[in-house]
Amino acid sequence: MTLTEISRYFHLNETIQKNREALKFLREQAEPAAPSLNGMPHVSGVKDSTGRLAVEIADMDARITYLEEQAEQERDKAVAFCATIQDARLYLIFRLRFVRCLTWAEVADLLGDYYTEEGVCRMAYNYLAKTEKEKPTAQSA
């Protein structure tokens, strides 16, 4: 598995979180506002800001649902890859980073005093590079 493949779940989770924040903002915007009582005349023309927001909210909800389905599939792939790792320390690093979606700093903190953010990152990337080299390639007959 490549870094790009194993990172998909992690990145999808980040995207889902950003979309949820945007959805929260849209829902806040859709809440009824206090009427303007300034006595000034209103501009002619019809604007349906509530309807526009409702459409945006529905689209964002659908997008989040789609991303969650994709993320579940990618999570299953990441879990399956982690199950192939024999080294207990590397297994834990991969589970924490690519399944639980922790930052490298959080992974290092959980592993203990002897680990750094850079160190755990390097261990994971070296392992991926090693497994990529060991992967059998298709040879022509």
Describe, in short, the structure shown:
By secondary structure, the chain is mainly α.
Main sheet overview: none
What portion of residues belong to β-strands?
Answer: under 5%
Q: Would you count the extended β strands for me?
A: 0
Low-confidence stretches: none
Helicity range:
over 70%
Q: What is the subunit organization of this protein?
A: single chain
Rg computed from alpha carbons, rounded to a whole number of angstroms: 23 Å
Mean pLDDT: 86
Shape: elongated
* Topology order in helix (H) and strand (E) letters: HHHHH
Distance between the termini: 25 Å
Report on this structure.
- The protein is 72% helix and 0% strand.
- The chain has 141 residues and is an all-alpha fold.
- Helix 2 (49-83) runs antiparallel to helix 3.
- The chain starts with a helix and ends in a 7-residue tail after the last helix.
- The relative contact order is 0.13.
- This is DUF1492 domain-containing protein.
